[in-house]
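Sequence, please.
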């Protein structure tokens, strides 16, 4: 019975999909009153990061911090040793009123990319 309880949040998850010129990010989120990142994959050109093989191939990264409010979403992913921010995502709601889509930037390995995002 405990395993069914632990699996429940995964079944109740959603996501954010972001795209730009030669860049892509997929961010799995939980459905909680706060922004809860359950996994992610980000890539730009030939460089990719992933929270695990179930999310796609890439160098490992983990969530360092994540915050969302009615103006936008901010997420920093760090290396597994929590020493460096390797992917940073800053998004704002296009109308400024917590309505999709989101526009912003993804900085991956110190290179900034314009992205547009929607909800899954």
């Amino acid at each position: 019975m405990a395993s069914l309880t632990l699996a429940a949040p995964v079944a109740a998850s959603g996501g954010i999909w972001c795209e730009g010129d030669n860049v892509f990010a997929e961010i799995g989120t939980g459905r909680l009153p706060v922004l809860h990142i359950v996994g992610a994959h980000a890539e730009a050109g030939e460089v990719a990061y992933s929270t695990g093989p179930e999310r796609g191939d890439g160098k490992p990264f983990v969530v360092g911090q994540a915050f969302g409010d009615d103006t936008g979403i901010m997420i920093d992913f760090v290396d597994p040793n929590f020493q460096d921010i390797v992917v940073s995502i800053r998004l704002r709601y296009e109308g400024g009123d917590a309505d999709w889509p989101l526009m912003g930037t993804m900085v991956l390995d110190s290179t900034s990319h314009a992205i547009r995002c929607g909800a899954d």
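The longest strand covers residues 35-44.
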